[in-house]
Write a structure and sequence with these properties.
By secondary structure, this protein is of the alpha+beta class. The protein is 30% helix and 24% strand. The protein has 4 helices and 7 strands; from the N terminus they run E-E-H-H-E-E-E-H-E-H-E. Strands 2-3-4-5-6-1-7 form a 7-stranded mixed beta sheet, with helices on both faces.
């Protein structure tokens, strides 16, 4: 999977969500809920990255909720400066626009922090990122910064 480059200075706005759905920063006392969610639906590596995102002040992880139910998350500026990800939506909550909204909300945060470009590391759904935020694949980046990972 290639890394992708995103021009943050021409992002579309974050789309409106259906009533009852929200995107907001995770709060410190919600860490156990978020980390359990990520471990259950995704991977231990993503739990590690979310742990780092939660330790930043302000936290560098956004969450999608419906009432008091966690539906998804998106980290930014964690693995490397200017990086987006990891991100994920509960399989049962997909199709509601949460992935797109989380992506754009996080990328807008990077832009607000002074970045002109963002990088999506090891972008899985390449076409999705191309369509939503104008991302382009970075040549010869399939392993990127993860090439020397211990696990």
């Amino acid at each position: 999977m290639p890394d992708m480059l995103v021009p943050l200075y021409r992002l579309p706005p974050v789309p409106d969500l259906a009533d009852g759905l929200t995107i907001r920063p995770a709060l410190p006392f919600e860490s156990h809920v978020l980390l359990e969610f990520v471990g259950r639906h995704f991977s231990p590596k993503w739990v590690d990255e979310c742990t780092v995102a939660l330790a930043a002040r302000p936290a560098r992880v956004l969450i999608a909720t419906e009432g008091k139910r966690l539906l998804g998350f998106a980290c930014y500026d964690v693995t490397c400066r200017g990086f987006f990800g990891p991100t994920g939506v509960d399989p049962a909550a997909r199709g509601k626009g949460l992935g797109k909204a989380l992506l754009l909300a996080a990328l807008h945060r990077l832009h607000d922090d002074g970045f002109a470009y963002g990088i999506i590391g090891q972008a899985g759904p390449v076409e999705f990122y191309q369509q939503v935020c104008g991302a382009v694949a970075i040549p010869d980046s399939d392993e990127g910064v993860f090439a020397r990972a211990l696990v």
